[in-house]
């Protein structure tokens, strides 16, 4: 039986649908005296299905699905990564919910092309009903992924397609963006209305309770921790509270001092003093 599985996979790699059908017939349909325990399973051919998707072979995908190579969960992720548009159309026709999260703690499928800066696939998914604000259990959305890593043009495009700056903890992700344009993205998100003083998951009791041990703070806490001096100054100018406590009952200055960020600690200490004495913050 292993021989038929391997030969089927080889035929799929060669786009040989007749060869695939031959091995499927031998494996699944030729009568043989085997116990129920040793009965061959169509799911053994799943690797052949993935290769068919990778090669954009819709006919072979349809055939293998008819042979019940999968029970319910179609391999949507593989089709998105392979940019197999025709196969994705076929999956939609079978009832695929395009906004289903990949995992409970991971966002839905449009996050894949966003992470790889694939504008064409992103547009296709949105045009076919993908929601840029669809969230997983940890309030990650496709726009969350974009804010963290995508090019500015793709971020702008997602906002033009309805991405909500108040969904997906966007300002927290913008602070952690590891690119030279991080401050620009922070400005954009803040100006669009993302809350500046909100502790991460503050409005999501379930998310907060699950993530509280990881030290949940405001964007200013994270900027202090990760030495983002330009972002710290901007957030303070925009009204960030330097004395607000995170889930570990610490201020942003505590994290700057803990990680040895002397310049940031001094800026935050001065901000605290200004707040106490009611003077404006200007940099």
Nutshell version of this structure?
It contains 17 helices and two strands. By secondary structure, the chain is mainly alpha-helical.
Describe the structure.
The protein is an all-alpha fold and 283 residues long. The protein has a domain of 96 residues. The protein contains 17 helices and 2 strands. A two-stranded antiparallel ribbon has the order 1-2. Strand 1 and strand 2 form a beta hairpin. Helix 1 packs antiparallel against helix 2, helix 3 runs antiparallel to helix 4 and helix 14 runs parallel beside helix 16. The longest helix has 16 residues. The chain starts with a helix and ends in a 6-residue tail after the last helix. It comes from Lentithecium fluviatile CBS 122367.
The percent of residues in helical segments reads: 40-55%
Order of helices and strands: HHHHHHEEHHHHHHHHHHH
What is the rounded distance between the termini? 72 Å
> Which strands sit side by side, in order, in the main sheet?
1-2
Q: What's the overall geometry?
A: elongated
Estimate the strand proportion: under 5%
Q: Briefly note the structural class of the backbone.
A: mainly alpha
Q: Quickly count the helices.
A: 17
Largest beta sheet, briefly?
2 strands, antiparallel
- Overall pLDDT metric: 91
């Amino acid at each position: 039986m292993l021989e038929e599985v391997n030969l089927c996979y080889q035929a799929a790699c060669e786009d040989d649908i007749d060869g695939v059908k031959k091995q499927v017939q031998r494996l699944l349909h030729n009568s043989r005296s085997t116990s129920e325990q040793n009965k061959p399973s169509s799911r053994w051919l799943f690797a052949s299905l993935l290769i068919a998707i990778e090669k954009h072979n819709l006919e072979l995908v349809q055939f293998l699905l008819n042979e019940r190579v999968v029970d319910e969960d179609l391999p949507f992720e593989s089709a998105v990564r392979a940019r197999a548009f025709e196969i994705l159309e076929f999956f939609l026709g079978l009832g695929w919910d395009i906004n289903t999260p990949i995992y409970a703690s991971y966002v839905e499928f449009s996050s894949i092309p966003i992470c790889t800066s694939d504008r064409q696939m992103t547009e296709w998914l949105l045009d076919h009903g993908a929601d840029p604000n669809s969230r997983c259990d940890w309030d990650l959305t496709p726009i969350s992924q974009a804010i963290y890593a995508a090019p500015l043009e793709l971020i702008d495009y997602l906002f033009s397609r309805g991405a909500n700056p108040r969904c997906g903890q966007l300002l927290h992700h913008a602070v952690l963006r590891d690119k030279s344009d991080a401050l620009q993205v922070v400005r954009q998100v803040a100006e669009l209305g993302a809350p500046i003083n909100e502790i991460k998951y503050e409005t999501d009791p379930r998310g907060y309770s699950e993530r509280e041990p990881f030290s949940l703070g405001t964007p200013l806490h994270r900027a202090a921790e990760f030495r983002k001096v330009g972002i710290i100054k901007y957030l303070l100018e925009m009204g960030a509270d330097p004395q607000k406590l995170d889930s570990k009952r610490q201020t942003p200055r505590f994290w700057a001092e803990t990680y040895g960020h002397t310049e940031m600690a001094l800026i935050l200490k001065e901000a605290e003093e200004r707040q106490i004495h009611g003077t404006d913050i200007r940099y």
